[in-house]
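Q: Got a minute? One more chain.
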Amino acid sequence: MFEYKILKKSKLSSARLGILKTSHGEIETPAFVPVATQATVKTLTSDEVEEAGSQILISNTFHLHLKPGEDIVEMNGKLHKFMNWKRPLMTDSGGFQVFSLGFGRDHGVGKVLKRKIDESVQLGQQPNKVKITEDGVFFRSPIDGTELYIDPKESINIQQKLGADIIFVFDEATSPVASEEYTKDSLRRTHAWAKQCLEHKTSNQALFGIVQGGKFNHLRQESAEYIGSLPFEGFGIGGEYGDDKTSMLDILDTVMTNLPDEKPRHLLGIGHIEDMPHIVKAGVDTFDCIAPTHYGRHGTAFTSEGKVNLKRTNFLTDFEPVDKKCSCFVCQDYKRSYIAHLIRAKETTGMKLLAYHNLHFFNNYIAELREQIKEGKI
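A: Always. Here it is, folded:
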């Protein structure tokens, strides 16, 4: 079962309110999607993740293929039962690892450049640890160096065994330093793989196509038009976003204009607090990001007054809650001084408390944005 219904469109922007219906429940959109890479949101139980307001999670196909393996997950009743998550689930396709374990690792870059580098990826060039062919991709396991091969058919097979409600096509996420010639050739391959994924899928899972094209607006338009013409249940916007997040907003505008309006759009791997108003106004329905738990595990809390680094010594004598305006149990029951002690002592409990608070904060923030759309403010 999969259905998407638009409830309201903003008159001030491209923002919209909607409902995504799946066999594991409904999602109010726009929605933040926490990352459960290895069938867990790090340091938290599935019950805690739901209590923090999460409606849907996304797990990582590549890493679950490595361990424990999709066959083990399937034998455990598939991903929902395996991780005791009763609400909707997504799985990505492994396409991001083509970049992150390839040129991303080679050049030390992410989706958005944080520093200027002189290197570029040219047509015909291959990463050091990944081999990209016309048919699929050869990887080396980051665990033991074993050679792995994933192509569109294998990615779909893995995701069908994992059993998430929403799955994605196998693609190549390109590097922010990829040349136009390289990106164009990669896009041709990614489009061919998208069709193969449609042909290989035999389950009733919702399959989302992925728009690529890097920082090149004309390639993004070409990709949105092509992927949008295929019978996908929804669409992901993937890859890299150029030199800064201003470029990302231009890219999103191009992509959204050229995708079917009546189907849901998911932004892959972008979703910091400061990004949310912009991507919601662009018409994004769901988006995932590791920020809440990643920052929490490293001692940083997101608050109504900005980010707070609880590793700092001065917080050992701060007897206020993490955020006075927050209603989560962490802010009701614990003081900054105690959590600062736990973080400095490298105690897992401190990481857990901040991960929970941050996740609650992110989910509450997107709920407020939904309310603003409802009230006609954005």
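A: The chain has two domains: 2-289, 304-357.
Q: Perfect, thanks.
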